[in-house]
Each structure stands twice: as C-alpha cells, then as structure tokens.
Write a structure and sequence with these properties.
The structure holds two protein chains of two kinds.
Chain A (H helix, E strand, L loop, with lengths): L2 E5 L2 E5 L6 E3 L4 H17 L8 H12 L3 H14 L4 H13 L3 H14 L4 H13 L11 H7 L4 H24 L2 H6 L3 H19 L7 E4 L3 E4 L8 E5 L4 E6 L5 E6 L4 E6 L3 E3 L1
Antiparallel strand pairs in A: 1-2, 2-3, 4-7, 4-10, 5-6, 7-8, 8-9
Helix pairs in contact in A: 2-3, 3-4, 4-5, 5-6, 8-10
Chain B lengths: L1 H36 L3 E6 L3 E3 L4 E9 L15 E15 L2 E14 L3 E5 L3 E3 L4 E3 L3 E6 L2 H8 L6 H8 L4 H4 E7 L3 E2 L4 E10 L3 E8 L3 E2 L1 E16 L2 E14 L3 E5 L3 E7 L11 H7 L5 E7 L3 E5 L10 E14 L3 E3 L4 E11 L15 E13 L6 E12 L3 E5 L3 E6 L4 E6 L3 E6 L36 H10 L7 H22 L1 H25 L3 H20 L8 H11 L5 H19 L6 H22 L3
Parallel strand pairs in B: 2-9, 11-20, 21-27, 22-29
Antiparallel strand pairs in B: 1-3, 3-5, 4-5, 6-9, 7-8, 10-12, 12-16, 13-18, 14-17, 15-16, 17-20, 18-19, 21-23, 23-25, 24-25, 26-29, 27-28
Helix pairs in contact in B: 8-9, 8-12, 9-11, 9-12, 10-11, 11-12
The chains are: A alpha+beta, B alpha+beta.
Chain lengths: 277, 629
C-alpha cells in the first residue's frame, strides 16, 4: 500500500516502487526567482553585442560638434548590429532631427520608444518631434498617467513576461500535481495565479495591438493615400512627412493598407513611402 | 455644558498652541527673508564733488553679492551728463564654500550744464532682489579758460570761422562721420569704430547722441570723448569723437547701423565754434532757440573671417594675445577640505567671451563648479584685462598630489596662427582628514525661479548597451518555440502520474495482484543468495514468507493467518476456475515449506534447492491459473 509521509525538509512517497524526494520549502516565489536569475544569466551570457563605448563617445563628440551626418552614419551602423538597443535608435533620431529630417527622426524615436517606452528622454524627444509635425504622443483626452502605465512595458517585455508566467503556471501545476497533501494545500492558488498573470499579459499584448507603435509606420516623406492598392485608385488624402500610421494589412506586394485612427480614414499607401517602426 | 467645554478646549488649543506656532513660523520666515535680502549690495562713488565743465567725472559703481555672478547696474538716462563705460573690475572670495563677489563698474561722465547737477539713483536687480543707491550731487563750474575768454578778448578764430562758414551750405559745415580701423577681422579680434561729429557753426543746445545698433558684433565703449580742431578744405571745424571697440561673434557679415546726432543750430552766432571750450559752452547754454538738425552716419558692413583650421585641442575659441597662470589658495590641506584653484587668463582681446580652459584629468580630486571674474581696462583704446576662473576642488586621497599643466590655446590675429600657453604644474600636500568631500555649488538653491526661454530635444545618450531586462526579454523571446512545449509536457506527465498514483491509492489490490510475481521473483533471488551462503534456514524462511505474501497479494486476504484448508477455500472462492491439481500443488508446497520452516533439523542444501526450483515452477503455473479469473 502506498503512503506519503512528510519528514523534515522533504516528503517521500512509499510503496509500489515509487520513491521520490522533493524539498517541501519550494514555493512558487523561489521558483520565480530562480527562473528570473536564469534569464538574467542568459542575458549576461550573450556575446558582446554591445558596441565599443569609445566608438559611441566619438560619435557623440561628432554630434556635439555639429557633424550630424557623420554621427548619424555611425549611429545607423550601430542600429544594424544591435537591433534591440533603444539608445542607438534614440541617438539616430536626434541626428535626423538636427539634420531637419522630421520623418526619420520620428521613425527612429518611435523605434526607441517601442523598445523602451518608459525612458523619459525617449518619451520627451518623441513627443517633441511629434509636436513639431502636428501630432502628439499622448492623444487628446487621455490622462498622461494612464498613457504612461499603458506604455510602461515594451512589446518585447510583455511577450517575455507572458512566456515566463506560462512556464511558471505549468511548473506550479506540475508541482502541485506531484505534491503531497500539505504542499498541495500551500500551492493551491499558485497555478491559477500564475496562469492569471499569463492571461493578463496576453490581454495587455492584445490591447496594445491597436497601438500605432506595435505595428505602425511613419511616412518618411509626403505620401499619397489611395482608396485601393494600385495607381488606378483615387487618391483620398496626402500623408504629411513624419505622420504616424497604423498598418492594417501588409499582404499586398506593393501596398500597405493603413489606418489613421485620429481622422477615421483608411487606405493604401505604397510600401516604399512608409517606414515600418 | 459638554458642548461649551469642547468649545473652550478648541479656543484654548488655538490660542495656546496654534497662534504662537504661527507667529514663530512667520518670524523665522521674515528673518530668513531679511537674510536673503541682505545678499545684494550696491554703492556709488565719484572722484570729486566739484568739477569744471571741461573736466570728466569718474563714477564707480560697486555691486556685491553672495553668488558667483552679480547683475550689472542700470544707469538711468541722464540729461545733464553723457555717460560712457570705462571698465570693470571683479573680485571673488570663497570661504568654506561661501562665495562673496564684488564688481566695480567705472563710468566716465562728462557734464553738459553748469550749476548743481544730480546723478540719479543707480539700481541693480538680480531677479529677486533690487538694490539702489542714493542720488549724488555735483557742482559743475565754468572752466577757468572759458571764463577768461569770455571776459577778455574775443575768440582768436572767430574771424576765420566767420569767413569760412559764411558762404558754405549747412551740410558741409556740420556733419557726422563713422569709420572703422578695419573692414575684415576674425571673430574676437578688436575693431575700433570712430564716430566723429564735426561742426563749423555754433549750436544752441547740447547735441543728442544716439549710438548705432550692431549685428554679429559685441561692443565696449572707449571713453572719454575727445575734442579737437581740424581744417578740411579750408574750413576749420571743431570735432568731438567717441570710439567703440567691436568684436565679431561668428564668421560672416556683420553690420553697424547708422549712429545719429541731433543738434540745434543757432541762428545768431553767440559762441565761436573755434573756441577751445566750444562744446562746454554750448552744453552750458540753456533755453536757446534754433533749427534742429539730425545727422546720421552711413551703414557700415564688416566681414568676419572664419578661423583657420589646425586649432589645438585646448582651443576654446579665444582670440587675442593671452598669458595664463594658475595658483592654489593654499598648498597644504586635509582630505575632504576645499581648495580654490584659480586659473588667470590675462591679455588683450575680448575677455568677455573667453571661456574656462579645459582642466586636465584631476585624479584624486572631486571637482565642483567653476566661476569666473572679469577685470577689463581700456588703456590706449585696447581692450585688455584678466579673467580669473576659480574652481573648487576637494582632494579625496592623502599624499602629495601634483596638478598638471593647464593648457590654453588662442588664435593670435596679428600673426594669424594658433598659440598655446600653459600654466606651471602645482603641488599640493594632502593630509588625512576627518570627513569626505562636502558638496559645493555656486548657486542659491530655491531662490530663483527658472523660466523656460525655449525648448529643444534632449541630448544624445551615452549608454552603449541595452538595459539588461530588454536583453533578457530578447533572449527569452528568441528561444525556439518548441521549447515552450517542455513545461506543457511536464504538466501533462505530472497530471498523468498523479492520476495513476491516485488510482493506486484507491485500488491497492489490483497493483498488489499485478506485482505479486515480480515481488516473489525477487524473494527467490534472495533465497538463492542465502542458499549460496549456506544459510539454509534463512533461505527457507524467505521462501515461506514470500509464498504467504504472494498468495495474500493474489487473493487479497491475509493468508498467513489461515489454515491450509481455509486458504484453499479462499482461493477457490476467488478463482473458481482454478483446477484441483494446482490447488493440491499449493497445499503440498505449503506443507513442505512449513515442515522445513518449523523443523529445520532435517533440512539439507539439496532440499532447499529443490524448494526454490519447485517454487519457481509453481509460480509460473499459478500465474496462468490466476489469469483464468
């Protein structure tokens, strides 16, 4: 006959050949910590993708001395080698701004904002560049605090958190299934709580899908908004340079179907006229 | 009654606690305000209280404050004096992080009228405090020469002037001219502007001078006003001239808009323009009538040249001819104590625009703000002086520390090359102190309100790496998708295993029945081991217990507690299809085991071996029989 006994720091399932030891003190929080530590270790174990700091200092000196084009060339090279570094995009946005190219300035600020939306400098410069082109980072009528919370985490972070909580929910469920009565009681809510957190982040991702920064684009130059995907269709509007748009469909080879939520307009624009964020 | 008591307590609280507390807070606030108010001071002095109309009066306005920069004085419009800036001198002292600044501004005043004149109150305002001087009274008398002339013989040049002036048009007898000593200059190179007012006719009142406006230039007055006489095309003129030093700001065109003089021409000549004291005479006239004439200079354009390439690293834009020196206010100090490092740039050039030399890496020091003081003099119409940059440094480690040379580069426009000068290295002995460096700054916290004057994007970032959290998220999101199946598999496996365990706990007999043979097989192995070790009795005991356990597992009953007959009935009841032969085999084997188990004296090795063999064969047969269920 099988029986389960708790002894000290572990429990043992006796009988019928099954014998397994688990530390009773393992709660979901330590598991979370362990998993987080593993993730951070993964991050640190990345190859040295970060570019040379001296190189950045040189480029920043160029920027400081007004050599914006030279600085921009360097910043763009860095964005290619480090596509997840928001600061390179931010610096490139600054150089574009100084070169009086608002379309690309907004584009690169938006790329930086997409990666690190809570950075105050990135928010400030994106807002500034948008205001220069008749737009605003925080839409009219939306409280600033709410907008800040809505963009507290980047898309990448939201997805990573959803994955982490998915793993945690599975492991908490598995542990609870294997645990003895006492531990099972202690773990009663852990799988549901972690699953709820996973769902929460998935929901956040879903809501953020409507954001222009999630699947958006910027008009690098004035572009024509057509009523259909082709030249034969009527032009409905002209997108000014630096206009932020939402991509609705990119299935067509040559045209994006885009939407302008503020104006309630949608139409097609040549892919070459827009730059995806 | 209770309500009245409550009310009484409330009043008691207000009068005994709240009001005194409020009074104390107000008193402290007022004292603080008084202290703050005392920070800005102003005083005005003149070199004498009585002067002749032909003399100049030196006015010195001293402004003191407790911050690195103090405001310039506001000289109100003076109808009875012409005022020209003559220079400035500044001194700064820093004691334990407290700064005291004193700046003296010197002005040259030329009187316009004879009699008791007043210099109006002069004020200074630093954005939060205003300081003001009292009025100063000056007595202006006629000059001795003028008085003699007026009382004695007629002016020597009157006849000549009359002859020359009479047939000429008014435009040629009175005019204004502006010229610069150079038309091209480098940024920061001095250009002297000369504005000269010529007249060969008498004036009824003091001319009003309106200085020009400058574009891409900064200026410094070069007083005093000079007077003289000159003959141009046979006409003798009296002239009055003022010089201004100009400095270009950036390469490109610069311009000087027209300067103006508004003069009142006298219809009847009462004053000879060739009188040596012509200007003072007409300045001293009152109430004379005449025609008003406005004279203007032409618009002047200048070309500011770009500086040549090849500037040294220490070049910060200074143009002129400078020397540099550095000193410490003491050479023995304890760690954590502040030392003032003063770097003095002296020479000729636009010192106003000279910025602090770059301090080389001061290892072992905590470096605080740098502030500057400026002394300017205008001797021989050349702007020169010194600018002292004072930096508070705090040594962090003990021992002798050497402050390396501080380099300062400038462009010398005379030889058109960059030059670099440097200070001597400085030595500082640092002893072990009691505390770490305190913070020093030269601003007055919380006293000035910042008002935005413009907006711009924020500066570039110097962060080379993406934040760790983003990199970690990137790694996680970059994982192969199928890895996410691992936790799902673990969950499914755990649930399955848990269900099996649960079923096992609910139905233990089934598992005992299935595993009975395996357990018996292990027991046979143990019995064989005992047999090999020649422990015959133990081998038989193992077989006996094993057989009892096997039958118990198969039947679900406690066989060892039954007799052979009862056991046979139980087996028959549970497994009715089992044939009689096997039931007899069970009975026979059981009895044989019991015999050797309870009377081991007759047991031999061969017997034990036979028992093991028989048990093995019996198990195989019984397994088949039990499956007939």
């Amino acid at each position: 006959m099988s029986m389960l006994s708790l002894k000290g720091s572990g429990f043992t399932v006796h009988g019928s050949g099954f014998k397994s030891d688990f530390p009773v003190s393992l709660y979901p929080i330590p598991y979370t910590l362990i998993l987080s530590c593993l993730l951070f270790l993964c991050a640190f174990s990345l190859p040295a993708l970060a570019y040379d700091k001296n190189e950045l200092a040189e480029l920043n000196d160029m920027y400081k001395n007004g050599k914006y084009q030279e600085a921009l060339d360097g910043y763009l090279k860095m964005t290619q080698s480090e596509s997840e570094n928001p600061y390179t995009f931010y610096n490139a946005g600054n150089a574009y701004f100084r070169l009086n190219r608002p379309g690309f300035a907004v584009l690169y600020y938006a790329k930086a904002f997409k990666l690190l939306p809570r950075d105050p400098d990135m928010r400030a410069n994106l807002d500034y560049a948008l205001k220069q082109t008749g737009q605003a980072l925080v839409p009219d009528g939306v409280p600033k605090a709410l907008h800040y919370v809505y963009y507290l985490l980047s898309d990448l972070e939201l997805k990573a958190l959803a994955i982490i909580f998915f793993w945690l929910a599975c492991f908490a469920g598995a542990l609870r299934a294997l645990a003895g009565e006492k531990l099972k009681e202690e773990l009663k809510t852990a799988p549901y709580a972690t699953a709820a957190a996973c769902l929460f982040f998935l929901l956040w991702i879903g809501v953020r899908d409507s954001s222009p920064f999630t699947n958006g684009a910027v008009a690098a130059a004035p572009a024509t908004l057509l009523s259909g995907p082709g030249e034969k269709f009527k032009a409905n509007a002209t997108l000014p340079e630096a206009r932020l748009v939402k991509i609705l469909d990119e299935g067509d080879e040559e045209y994006y179907e885009i939407g302008l939520p503020g104006e309630g307009i949608k139409g097609w624009v040549k892919k070459t006229d827009l730059q995806k964020i | 009654m209770k309500f009245l008591n409550s009310l009484k307590n409330v009043f008691k609280f207000i009068f005994c606690y709240t009001l005194p507390l409020t009074a104390i807070v107000l008193a402290v606030s007022l004292m603080a305000a008084q202290n703050a108010r005392a920070a800005l001071g102003i005083s005005a002095q003149i070199d004498r209280t009585e002067l002749e109309i032909t003399d100049n009066l030196y006015l010195t306005v001293t402004i003191s404050g407790d911050s690195a920069s103090v405001p310039e004085p506001t000289i109100p419009p003076m109808s009875n004096f012409n005022a020209y800036s003559s220079g400035r001198s500044q001194s700064i002292s820093i004691m334990n992080g407290r700064i005291t600044t004193s700046v003296s501004f010197t002005y040259i005043l030329t009187p316009r009228f004879i009699g008791r004149q007043k210099i109006p109150a002069i004020s200074a305002f630093n954005g939060r405090e205003k300081a003001i001087t009292s009025e100063i009274e000056v007595t202006v008398t006629k000059s001795g020469a003028a008085a003699g002339t007026a009382q004695g013989s007629p002016p020597q040049h009157q006849g000549a002037a009359g002859r020359a002036a009479a047939p000429k048009a008014a435009d040629t007898l009175i005019f204004l001219k502006a010229e610069t000593d150079r038309r091209t200059a480098y940024p920061g190179q001095q250009i002297n502007l000369l504005i000269r007012f010529y007249t060969a006719v008498p004036l009824t009142s003091n001319p009003q001078y309106l200085p020009p406006a400058y574009k891409n230039l900064i200026f410094e007055d070069l007083p005093p006003v000079r007077n003289g006489e000159v003959t141009i095309k046979d006409i003798r003129y009296s002239f009055s001239e003022i010089k201004t030093a100009l400095f270009g700001l950036s390469p490109g065109p610069a311009s000087i808009s027209p300067a103006s003089v508004i003069a009142q021409l006298q219809s009847n000549e009462h004053i000879d323009p060739f009188d040596p004291n012509f200007f003072q005479k007409f300045f001293s006239m009152n109430g004379s009538q005449g025609a008003t004439k406005e004279l203007k200079t032409e618009n002047l354009t200048l070309n500011i040249l770009p500086l040549p390439d090849g500037a040294p690293l220490s070049f910060t834009g200074a143009v002129g001819n400078y020397t540099i020196a550095a000193e410490l206010d003491r050479n023995r100090v304890k760690t954590g104590e502040a030392v003032n490092l003063s770097v003095t740039v002296s020479g000729t050039g636009s010192l106003t625009t000279v910025t602090a030399p770059k301090l080389s890496e001061l290892m072992g020091f905590k470096v605080f703000d740098t502030m500057s003081s400026l002394d300017i003099n205008k001797k021989n119409d050349i702007i020169s002086g010194k600018k002292v940059f004072t930096t508070v440094i705090v040594p962090r480690s003990e021992g002798p520390i050497r402050i390396p040379q501080i380099k300062f580069a400038f462009f010398d426009p005379e030889v058109k090359t960059y030059r670099e000068v440097e200070t001597k290295p400085l030595e500082l002995n640092v002893e072990k102190g009691d505390s770490d460096a305190k913070n020093f700054n030269f601003t007055q916290p919380g006293t000035q309100v910042v008002s935005a004057t413009g907006s711009d994007i924020r500066y570039v970032s110097d962060k080379a790496k993406a934040p760790v959290i983003i990199r970690a998220a990137g790694v996680l999101f970059g994982m192969a998708w199928w890895l996410n199946l691992l936790p799902v598999a673990a969950l499914l496996f755990s649930l399955l295993f848990s269900n099996i365990q649960s079923f096992r706990l609910r139905n233990p007999q089934i598992f005992r029945f299935r595993q009975a043979k395996a357990a018996a097989g292990k027991d046979i192995s143990r019995a064989e081991t005992e047999l090999k070790a020649d422990r015959l009795k133990e081998a038989v005991s193992v077989l006996y217990d094993s057989f009892m356990e096997y039958l118990s597992d198969k039947t679900g009953g406690k066989i060892s507690a039954l007799t052979t007959r009862q056991a046979r009935e139980l087996i028959k009841d549970r497994f009715p299809l089992m044939d009689e032969y096997h039931l007899e085999e069970i009975k026979s084997f059981w009895e044989q085991l019991e015999m050797f188990h309870f009377s081991p004296s007759s047991l031999t090795a061969q017997n034990a071996k036979d028992l093991i063999t028989r048990y093995t064969v019996l198990l195989e047969r019984l397994e088949k029989e039990f499956k007939k269920k």
